[in-house]
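In full, the data.
>
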Amino acid sequence: MKSEKKTSYTGYIVLGIIGFCFLYFILWTIFKEKMPLHKYLYEISSNYDAYAEKALFIFPVVFFVFIFLTLMKPTSAKRFLRLQASLPTSKIKSLAKGLVEVEGTLVMKNPLLSPVDNETCIGYYYTIEDIDKDSDGKESYRTIHRETQCNPFQIKDETGIIEVEPEGIELILLGETNISSNNSKRHKETLLKDGQKMLLVGYADAKNGQPFIRKDDHYKVLGITSASGITVWNKYQPLLRSFLFTCSVILLIIIFIFTQ
C-alpha cells in the first residue's frame, strides 16, 4: 500500500544554508566591497561584540521556536490522537455516516505474510534501519525504508460487524511485534492480527447499501491502535502536556537569565 525511502530534506537544507554562509564569508574576506551585502557584513565585523551579545540571546530563542514548531507540526497520528480523545465510541450497529470511532475485535479476511517472521496477519508496518557504530561500539539507527501493507478486514463488537477499507491506514502507538537484525541492518514489523481488540477512527460510509469505514477525506485520518494502550495514553497525556509546558517556561527563564 505504501512504500517509501524517507530522506531528511530538512537536514540537507540546513547543511546547504550553513555551507552557503561559510562559502560566502570566505569570498567576502577576499573580495570585501565587491561582494553584495558588504556594508552589512562590515558593520557586523566592526561591532562584533555587540552582535555576539544579541546572537547569544537570539540563537537559543530561534532554536527553541524551531523545536516547538517541529513538535507542534500537524501529522495524521496527532490528528488521530486528538480526534479519538473527543469522539464518543460508537456501536457498530448504530453508526451514522461521518467521522466515527469504533472499538472491537479484528476479523481477518485475506491473510498477509509479514516480511520479518512470515507471520499470518491482517496488515503490517515494516521498517528497515541502517545500523551505525561509533568508536566505542555504541549503535545508532537510521530508518531507510518504511512500508505499510494491509488487506481489507472487518471489525466487530457486541452489536455487529463492519468492513474496513484500509487504504491509507496508520498503525499508531503500537509496539514492534518482531525485530530481526544483522551486522548492518535492523528489520522491524508491527502486525495487525486476527482477534486483536483495537480502536479505529475513520469515516463511516456506504456502498451499494453496505456500510464500511474508510479514510476520512477532510481530516486525512484512518488510524488504528490498541484499545488498552489508548486508555493509558488518554490518562497520562494531560500530565505530559503540563510537564512539557513547565519545561518550556523554565527553559525560557534560563535563557533570559543567561543573556542578562
Summary: Helices lie at 9-31, 38-46, 48-72, 76-86, 227-258. The chain has two domains: 8-72, 76-241.
